[in-house]
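Session log. Operator J.P. requested a structure for one protein chain; no other inputs attached. Running the standard single-chain path with token output.
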Amino acid sequence: MKDALQYQDVIDLLSERYEILRRIAEEKWNKNNDIYISNSEWRILSKVFNKKRTISDVAKDVDFSRQATHKFVKSLEAKGLVEVSSALHSKKHKEINMTEFGKLCYEKNAHYKGEIEQQLINKLGEIEVTKLKNILTLDWDIEQVEV
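Structure written below.
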């Protein structure tokens, strides 16, 4: 694997490692639970965990189209993970609120991700994982390209 990664640029390296970690997390969830939750659904759940958000605000945060976000939210609602209601400030906007079942699933998945992070710590060392996390949370001051 090291040879395959040796000549890649930082974007491809981050993508490769992300895909590996995401696959491991997904497999861990699916092995231990009967309900399938897609990566896109997990991203939406992370944006509404312990806070009410409108669908349009969530769509902006996850960078999905409003139509795609609505589709994922409908799926989450059908699974009993979120509830959708009219926003107090506007009947036009819909608000997403995580159900108790949704919170339970989210917290269980956070535990699984913590186990994966511990595996990284065991393999790479706590100092290296902390450095990586610090680098990833820095403001990289990279301009986004407008489409």
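Operator note: The domain at 2-137 is CATH 1.10.10.10 (Arc Repressor Mutant, subunit A).
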